[in-house]
């Protein structure tokens, strides 16, 4: 298998697993630079990089821009060049970053983020629930259809993963933080097992929880949930009647109003860098998640960064980065050139950081 085949097979596997990542591709270069047209790298939400798009002068710039692109959920063209001043955004989708190395080379890198789709749990085997399943599937959400065990045989015809009601709590408990951050749960059982489903759902604290019911029925369900010991704030988070007031009448229209409310309250997920094991540049494949549903990596917060004391550039703190020790303190650099300048006058540059 050629390198390009391996690269795209790796991308396809990551997409199947539901992993968040960005692809960085060199689309233009002006020597002297170490990268070549078509060089590619994959950068994950925790800052790990697989592949090559340049040496130390551009690697950390690309890593940081990939993380920013994942956070914004939008692609961008990054131009790293010696005539750029401070890093600046040019237009809606381009960034100019100064080349910190002594060479006069320049490189343009196109960055494209890939963010896992939202997960939505639809409870009930009713016309409204079926309409939500179909519409959410058309939106390419990861859809889980929850029904009672006696409804399983019929509900498995839907374009979604089907789950029995008694397994809902365990399923939600296993979802990672990324999925929970944008998870939607809609209960539309026509009163058959609303309380049981919402008891499990609200304890997991999804981003959105909605009940398809009349205001009177919704109040009864809230009272029952409170009597079961659910915290008041969790019960209050329930949207009932679910959906925007669009004048919906038919099941499909109700489904549209509910998904519109979910999108309005919680737009499609953006991925932020994770606090995970230290980044390591490697070509080894990551193990696939154990769950049946495609999942993203756990996300808790951005990776730690430091400022190069010589050029001021932000550097992602990662194994293999260029560092130097002075008076018991570690300093991080974008490249070996900045490290040499620091080591020639450590007192000067260390003082500037205090």
Write the layout of secondary structure elements.
Layout: H1 3-17, E1 21-30, E2 40-44, E3 49-51, H2 56-72, E4 76-81, E5 88-90, E6 94-98, E7 106-114, E8 119-123, H3 127-138, E9 142-147, H4 152-155, E10 161-164, H5 168-174, H6 177-180, E11 184-187, H7 194-203, E12 208-211, H8 215-227, H9 232-236, H10 251-265, E13 305-307, E14 314-316, E15 322-326, E16 329-333, H11 336-344, H12 346-352
Protein described:
With 354 residues, the protein is of the alpha/beta class. It has 3 domains: 3-114, no CATH class; 119-265, 3-Layer(aba) Sandwich (Rossmann fold), CATH 3.40.50.720; 305-352, no CATH class. Helices cover 33% and strands 23% of the residues. The protein has helices at residues 3-17, 56-72, 127-138, 152-155, 168-174, 177-180, 194-203, 215-227, 232-236, 251-265, 336-344, 346-352; strands at residues 21-30, 40-44, 49-51, 76-81, 88-90, 94-98, 106-114, 119-123, 142-147, 161-164, 184-187, 208-211, 305-307, 314-316, 322-326, 329-333. It has a 7-stranded mixed sheet with strand order 3-2-1-7-4-6-5, sandwiched between helices. The N and C termini lie far apart (52 Å). Mean pLDDT is 82; it is low at 271-301.
